[in-house]
Amino acid sequence: MYSGKIVFAQLIDHLPMHTFRHCVARYGGDYRTRKFSCLDQFLCMAFAQLTYRESLRDIEICLRAQPSKLYHMGIRGYVARATLADANERRDWRIYADFAQALIGIARRLYAGEAFGVDLEVFVNTNRGALFHDDYRFDGKPIESRALYHDFRGYVAELLAKALDTTALDDALTPGDKQSLGVFLRGFGDLDKDAIYRGTSRAGYATPPGAGLQAGEPRAPIDLSVLLNANFWSWKMHKLDQFDLQATMLQPVGGMDRIAAAFERRVGDRITYGAEVTQIRRAGDRTRIVYRDRTSGAETAAEADYCICTIPLAVLRDIESDFSEQTTTAISRSLYVESCKLAWQADRRFWEEDSGIYGGISWTERDITQIWYPSSGFHGDKGILIGAYNYSLVAQQFGNRSPTERAEYARESGRRLHPEFENEVSRPISVAWQNMPYARSAWTKWSGIAREKYYPVLTRADGPFYFAGEHVSYLRAWQEGAILSAHHSIAALHERVQG
Ligand SMILES: Cc1cc2nc3c(=O)[nH]c(=O)nc-3n(C[C@H](O)[C@H](O)[C@H](O)COP(=O)(O)OP(=O)(O)OC[C@H]3O[C@@H](n4cnc5c(N)ncnc54)[C@H](O)[C@@H]3O)c2cc1C
What's the gap between Cα 123 and its chain centre? Predict the structure, then answer.
């Protein structure tokens, strides 16, 4: 006969009993208790949970069927339905809530290393082989990004090198600094021995290098005033130097919504789908959220101690609420950015096969603003191309067009960078986020003053209300910002309920 510990006792051995005793003491759970301690109650309920007992009677019958085992399970008190009911009724529930929190904390650490189940791949955005295009510059022909960057670098380096030969920089630089900077500029701009920019192979080739005697012929540099006449330097050239857009970036394989899908896999059973929140109310110290079932139209109210509100501010501002005046003002002081995207299906990856472009962005002064090439599936049969991705006023106007008009314009614009757009792209799909009823904008923007004065209000609790979302972060327009803000609010709430 097996004489070791019974399985239930082995399981319970894993629990931090000192923490349990702290929780009991915190709320005086065993005060004047002699017969049926909090530990007895906990063990009975844990047994019930693990063995799928359905009622107090069921628990009682089961546990009393083998009374000799109770001692080995750690239960010292007398198990009776009335005693259990009494304990469940009278004992402070926070003993078990606190202990559950401690257990969740332990379990979370155990699962910390477990993959979220989202595979990642490189997200290509910077690509010197991609293009810049302006209908009215460079004869309307696209130029390679490498030409724009390296010709600019060459000219700027040459001009600064010339300034080094004058006294203009004498106050700012020591003679030693000037010498070092001169050497740096030669490398930076690929200048010749006289510190003059005469073009560079970095900017690309008129005839590419190859095998045998084909040394390649670098293209002639574009004139500086021609470069300055094009407006790319105002922001498009520098956009991807922004900290949160610098290479190397990663994206989920299959699209950004794989992250939402991974959350759904873990907590989907707790989500109520199709529930449109119509009112956010206070109910004493608690919250009362009224929502409408989008299918049946039925309204329901849910009460809870706390609410973490993740509704985008552009939507939230129009929802009836009992937020404080400070919170309502903060919500109204945020600004919104419009953005549209349009995607094409291509039956041939012509940008790879014909132009040697593998991922990254081509920029144009036309209202599509960007063509973004896929970051994966290179040399596959087909591909999805982003044929427009614009912001703000341009997006507002683009979004006001019908989907058909957007596609016509996007096809014509794409054609100016890649003639293949004429016949080789199809099935356009476009989204104007400002027109989406549950978003009403692409993302939030805080002016300098609003960030300082109003934004902090949303980072704190307003009674039972907490806020989370990309708008409560400094990583605007990223899922990372939304997730970090959720962590921030949950940590604050956790601290509050822990006392
Ligand atoms: C065009 C575009 C491209 C982007 N690209 C990237 C990218 O490549 N990588 C990246 O990390 N981020 C990207 N983002 C940003 C990212 O999508 C957002 O930052 C992130 O989704 C914000 O999360 P959130 O929880 O704050 O808001 P959301 O994801 O908008 O979630 C808010 C939720 O509230 C729901 N809701 C709204 N109103 C109600 C209501 N009345 N009742 C109930 N529910 C409601 C909405 O349906 C939605 O599910 C992009 C955004 C856009 C617009």
Answer: 14
Q: What is the 466 CA–ligand 1 centroid distance (Å)?
A: 18
* Secondary structure of residue 300 in the 3-state scheme: strand
Does the pLDDT at position 451 exceed 90? yes
Kindly calculate the radius of gyration of the chain based on its CA atoms and give it in whole angstroms.
32
DSSP 298: -
Q: How far is CA 215 from the centre of its chain?
A: 46
- Cβ-count burial of 80 within 10 angstroms (0-12 exposed, 13-18 middle, 19+ buried)? middle
DSSP characters for 445-483?
Answer: E--HHHHHHTHHHHTS-BTTEEE-SGGGSSSTTSHHHHH
CA distance 253 to 142: 30
The answer to whether residues 440 and 396 touch, using CB atoms and an 8 Å cutoff, is: no
The whole-number pLDDT of residue 1 equals 57
Exposure string of 411-424, with b = 16+ CB inside 10 Å and e = fewer, is bebbebbbebbeeb
Q: Is 433 in the pocket of ligand 1 (CB under 6 A)?
A: yes
Predicted model pTM: 0.80
Residues 6+ apart with CB under 8 A from 404: none
Q: How many CB atoms lie within 10 A of CB 168?
A: 12
Whole-number pLDDT of residue 175:
96
pLDDT tens column, 108-153: 677 666 778 899 999 999 999 999 999 999 999 999 999 999 999 9
Q: 71-80, 378-387, 422-431: which has the minimum mean pLDDT? A: 71-80
pLDDT single digits (tens) 243-259: 999 999 999 999 999 99
477 close to ligand 1 (CB < 6 Angstrom): yes
Measuring CA to CA, how many Å separate 346 from each of 355, 363, 385, 418? 15, 19, 7, 12
For residue 452, report the distance from its CA to the centre of ligand 1, in Å.
24
Residue 396 or 110, more confident = 396
Which ligand 1 atom lies nearest to the CA of residue 443? 53
Q: How far is the CA of 304 from the centre of ligand 1 (A)?
A: 24
Three-state DSSP at 100 gives: helix
Q: Whose CA is nearest to atom 25 of ligand 1?
A: 469
Q: Which residue has the tokens 């759904």?
A: 264
- The predicted structure's pLDDT at residue 112: 64
Q: 329, 102 in Cβ contact below 8 A?
A: no
407 lines ligand 1 (CB under 6 A): no
Q: What percent of the chain has pLDDT over 70?
A: 99
CA of 415 to the centre of ligand 1 (A): 31
Residue 370 CA to ligand 1 center (angstroms) comes to: 21
Q: How confident is the model at residue 34 (pLDDT cuts 50, 70, 90)?
A: confident
131 in Cβ contact with 142 (< 8 Å):
yes
